User: Fold these one by one.
Assistant:
Number 1:
Amino acid sequence: MANNTCPQCGAPVPMRSGGMPYAVCGYCQTVIAREGMRDIGKAALLPYDISPIQLGTGGAVDGARFTVVGRVRWGWADGAWNEWLLQLSDGTTRWLGEAMGQFQILAEREDVAARLPADIALGFTLDVDGQSLTATDIKTVTCLGAEGDLPFPTPADWQVESVDFRSPTGAALSVQRDKVGVSAYVGRYVELPELRPSRLRAVEDWVMPDNLAETGR
């Protein structure tokens, strides 16, 4: 794991992934462009949460091993959730969405983003890979903080429109839109044990699922 130095505070900034263009300093929350190790602003200080996932957590998905290399935390008036960036052994990435004990595995899909209308209303349906997905939640959210290596910068004042789609089969679609553009992430709901996670964080009052505890993870 290569290290570079934060241009703001001089702390080491580990390189956890092979090609992410941005990183967040774990000491002073400076958002850093990897090319030239340039200071491009500040991320908000991550609030405490009770997630068992952390940077360095490992596991397996879609036939490949993964390592958690980054996180973005989003919030709105009634709550917050995490989006963990997974670096897979086959060179691809996934996002692990985590909200109120539920998990989603998602992959960015530019082809799906290109099919979205300018405005999305609750109840709007979209067919993706043979699945009919319905918009069930639309809200404006704010980036509450970030850490690790990331594919985009995470300024402290960043707000996006977030649209969640669901299907009866467990398929999921997450859409994020801001003044720069729109991104779409397609995947499915999963149970944490399905990912065969390792290096989970011990969290007070969080009970490890039996089928993880039995393996010693």
Number 2:
Amino acid sequence: MSDVAAGLTIEEEGGRVILVPTGDWIVDTIARFASEIARIDHDIDPGRVSIDLSGIERIDTAGAYLLARPIHRARDGVTEQHFRGDHATARRLIQLVLEKAINSEPEVEDRRFGFIQAAGRIGAGLEAAWKEMIATFAFFGHAITSFASTSARPWRFRMTPIFAVMEVAGVNALPIIAVLSFFIGAVVAYMGANLLETFGASVFTVELVGIAVLREFGVLITAIMLAGRSDSAFTAAIGSMKMQQEIDAMRVLGIDPYEALVIPRIVACVIMAPLLTFAAMIAGIVGGLLVCWSALDISPQFFVTRIHDSVPIQNFWVGMSKAPVFGAIIAIIGCKQGLDVGGDVESLGRHVTASVVQSIFMVIIVDALFAMMYLELGI
């Protein structure tokens, strides 16, 4: 069917403005009337406007939307007085557009900035952070109950996924963690040597490297690298499954997603975090040793002997005690964010970013709590 050219006549009768559209009011034929309709919408009281539908041949939602503009602001709503003529399809479509599109348009956000707007945004951010914290604790509780339930039936542990995650998140992360820890140890030794040499106490650089790497830097570098490298992978993998409805399919098949996806990642991270931390400690001490050897002429034998004699062993255990806790935190946040992913790629990217940021933030907070606890205990 060929298109019939659209027309529009504006008449006045008894104080009312009557729009008389004719022909096909479809998206291909109505563009030239947009400015005229906009003028009527702006200048004329919608209570005085009527639309004569009798001359319309065909109409689509674009035409209905354009004809609805002059009457959508009527104070008492759109009534029979706004229509003339008999065209059931056009009238029904205009009323549908008024109900579903025009009158439900979202309000334009006020983008002016001021104290009230700033306070409102801060309050909304704090509320969102509080809700996120509650949801994370709820997820942690669910994960603990799932782990306890699985532990009561050890044969339900999925060993293949556990070993796979241990390889991907642990063994494959070993090189980058070792390299970073090596340079952190070297930097600590170099800065300590420059500072302590001014006091004639450069030999204490050995103790500085030992305590800093064993107590803090080894485990922190490991946790931050796991958060940036492995946690994002957890969120992306589980989020992709959520987007493709694979997790819903697992539930339909009677498979618990926590048992199949969350528990293996938590177990793998709790096991691998101490091993990676140990490797990071060794690499950091080696980095400090080489700097002390080259810059301070402290031999490797003297360096190792002084660490053994002067750095208490509890520094090593303090660092190692944090590792499984950090591993569990990282895995829980990564899996939780993955299960929160919606059905679009934007949601996936947003939750991957949130996963890394929240993991690093929580690692720093928990490390500070550990520091205060060990300080009170005198360790």
Number 3:
Amino acid sequence: MNKLLLAALVSGAMAVPAFAADYTIMAPAAPGGGWDQTARSIQEALTAEGISGNVQVTNVPGAGGTIGLAQFATQESGNANALIVGGYVMVGAILTNASPVTLDNITPIARLIGESDVIVVPANSELQSMDDLVAKLKADPGSVSWAGGSAGGVDHIIAGLVAKAVGVDPTKVNYIAYSGGGEALAAVLGGQVTVGISGYGEFESQIAAGELRALAMSGENQMDGIPTLSETGVDVTVENWRMIAAAPDITDEQKAAITADIKKMAESATWKSILETKGWVDMYLDGDAFDTQLAADIESTTTVLKDIGLVQ
């Protein structure tokens, strides 16, 4: 009888899904932006695929993610259940804000996705094309106000590179930083700025609804018939990317377990469906290869930010 009871208990235990871990993911930005969307997409995929039984998302906005980064690094040390979303924007924000906390203070796990930025104007704008925007920018750089994400992030970098590519001093770009995509969108729709620049996913529904006019994409490929910057004669190609990282001071075994969970998620049908829906590019990279690429991106971003006058 005892053996039968033990067998039943073991069988019952095996029938219950063995989730690897419960995770809390910090999106170091306001709700509605790219990092928030990424964190909630990870939440969806991890739970839908049975990789984790409980995933929570928190938002800590400000200073291009460096406020959230500092909080995460100090409060979550050694916590193998804590994750944070970051990426290209955070690399730039760390440099421009001279943040004392850097990516060296956390544990990068994997690069996940890439996304083109899109340059948009309100539907009633006088600017009908990228040529019109370039002409206005050349005539008076300060008259073109750009709404985008945090100072020093990919949106700001692209605005500076566009100016530089058409012969305008990039330090004269009139860039207005917002802490989340939702705030930048409101500024564009409200006519408070000339141009909006952000990840395609953040403006997609307003473009489809005819509320915004898309002038160009920043990446290598068109989306929904929108030309790339290169196709409009502006020699700039930039693809934003986002990553997931873990807390500092976790063990090698804990890092390996988190990486395994994230890789399983990235290879799942749920995640692939999310990428297609969001228009995100699969840029998965982990391990030493990601560490090497991250170091190279930090170096190249430092050079770009010096060129546009944001870093000395």
Number 4:
Amino acid sequence: MDVKVWMYLAYLAVSIGLTIWVARALSRNGLVFLEDVFTDKRLADAINSLLVVGFYLLNLGYVTVAMKEARAVGTTSQALEELSMKVGWVLLVLGALHFFNVFALGRYRRGRLRQQAASHPPLAPVGYVPAQPGGRPVNPAGPVQSGPTHAGPTQAGPMPPAR
């Protein structure tokens, strides 16, 4: 087998392994988020399964389409360079799919939360504050004084006699 065939085999092994690992991690850790988004465990499980299938189809489809290399690969170093480019693109596609899913589900969740908030009427009052006599609140400290509140020299009272 020539170098290009080994590159293809390594590319498939790495790309499929990464796809399976990422799909399992997203499925396992994303289920909590989906249960919060959809509030129904059965629906969250079904959506999670559909997302995993779609993830596999999109990513493995990309992996197979991007596998072909038109240029000749003569040396091992060229094969490794091409392999790293191909795996790098697979990782970028995996990340883009992940962020798109999180963005779309986050928008759906925010809309659902807004809809829930709009459908709940405001809380009814629990009690009431009794009215004060005379319609004005009573000040327990007495009437409010107007004017300066500090004692100046003219307000101090008579001076003691000088000795």
